[in-house]
Design goal:
By secondary structure, this protein is an alpha/beta fold. It folds into two domains: 351 residues, Alpha/Beta hydrolase fold, catalytic domain (Rossmann fold), CATH 3.40.50; 58 residues, no CATH class. 33% of the residues lie in helices and 17% in strands. Strand 5 and strand 6 form a beta hairpin.
Amino acid sequence: MKSTGPDPVNLLLLPFICLSVFHHLPVVSSKTEVPSFPDEALPTKSGYLTVNSTTGSAIFYAFYEAQEPISQLSRTPLLIWLQGGPGCSSMVGNFIELGPWRVNFHKAKSDPLVLESNSGSWNRIFGLLFLDNPIGAGFSIASTPEEIPRDQHSVAKHLYAAITSFIEQDPSFKFRPIYITGESYAGKYVPAIGYYTVQKNAQSPVSERVNLAGVAIGNGLTDPLIQVGTHAVNAYFSGLIDEMQKSELEKAQWEAVKLTKARNWTEAANARTRVLDLLGEMTGLATLYDFTRKEPYKTELVTQFLQNKEVKRALGVNETLVFEDCSEIVGDALHEDVMKSVKYMVEFLVKKTKVLLYQGHFDLRDGVVSTEAWMKTMKWEGIHEFLMTERKVWKENGLLAGYVRKAGNLSQVVVLGAGHLVPTDQALNSQAMIEDWVLERRLFGPQQGEDLSSEFRGCL
């Protein structure tokens, strides 16, 4: 989702901060059918995972078990999804991206909202856990605004508490391989919780370790200092701005870079916002998240759906909680974090576990050019081999889907026909990508050069 603070495309879901203290937080597996939320669309379980037992602050979760597991559930991979923002609700990812059901209009915009089955869901053969992160986002609870994280260490600490609490609910989860995934500002969250988990594992007995197997970042904001300097050249060579505009945009970019190097975090974040605003004005695009779109992504449908009291009750959420598209409180809390880099965390993780970086080809904010710029500067002994490795053509059902490059623990995927919200735009292809990466097959397997047909995706 959004890479920083509120913006006119309305891609943040930074919600209500509950000022009450919740000491008894329910774990819900509701089977009460409601008109807007049919029984078959309910999560396997949903509820709250406490991150501070003293104040009652907690992260809301929705878990969907694998629809067609290809191994025993105790060994079935578990994907964790984190939305961007900072502070977007992962219910966006759930209900318009990669969850098993998507919200939409019945036929026309005047019709009631309905849920439609998503054949490209990421829980086809894996378990899928959505976490509203950080506290204060989505249906998560922050006892006070002051408790909302201001940095990635605090974000990771809360996420670790939530993840370990979820695992402890069921002993069968203990040995399931865990893959932490997310997009946009989760380009920081994902490395942060991965980094924190590896460090905690090193200090913990085997019985208490989290079985982290990999991390995946889609269209991520990970190294803002480098990424903010790519917008002008990207837009220029895409034919969206002319040379004079490119020069003007480069001046704005340099201001953001200068302020970042001076560690003036607040003004640096403001300067980046001005760069993106200027790019939007120059191009006249409906959204920078996908330069082919005539209108922004319809994230407001998720908000409308989750404001329904019956839906809230079905999810185990207090119906008085207000679900909003944007929360300035959460955005402001992490404002000084926006231009801080977590590249060093990725450099650390790629030495310990496998890493996937994927980008939608149409994204002008955190897309291919933006990601490749910082990847080239990674301090990792395998980066030269990675950069020298041939990028492979990726096809699904005989049709071009994108490109894959893999060397060692690092994989990069360019997804054609997609913008910032890759699973929304290319549901089946994104499903194929994540399944093949987790299971290390086809272009992610030992025979990287062999373009196996997609009918084998259901086999190990």
